[in-house]
Amino acid sequence: MEVRSHLRSILFTLLCISLVAPLSVFSHRSLGSNPCDRKTLPDPQSLRFDQLTVLINGYSESRIPLLHSIAATYAASSLVSSILVLWGNPSTSSQTLAELSRNLSILYSAGASITVHPQKSSSLNSRFLPRPSIKTRAVLICDDDIEVDPKSVDFAFRVWQSNPDRLVGFFARSHDLDLPRKTWIYTVHPDKYSIILTKFMILKNERLYSYSCGGGGSWERMRNVVEEMRNCEDILMNFVVADATGEGPTMVAAERVRDWGDPRNEGGERGEETKAGLSSVNRGGGEHRKRRGDCIREFHRILGRMPLRYSYGKVVNSVGEQGMCEKGGKLVLCDHQPLN
Ligand SMILES: *[C@@H]1O[C@H](CO)[C@@H](O)[C@H](O)[C@H]1NC(C)=O
Question: Percent helix, strand and coil across the chain, each rounded to 5?
Answer without folding.
Answer: 45, 25, 35
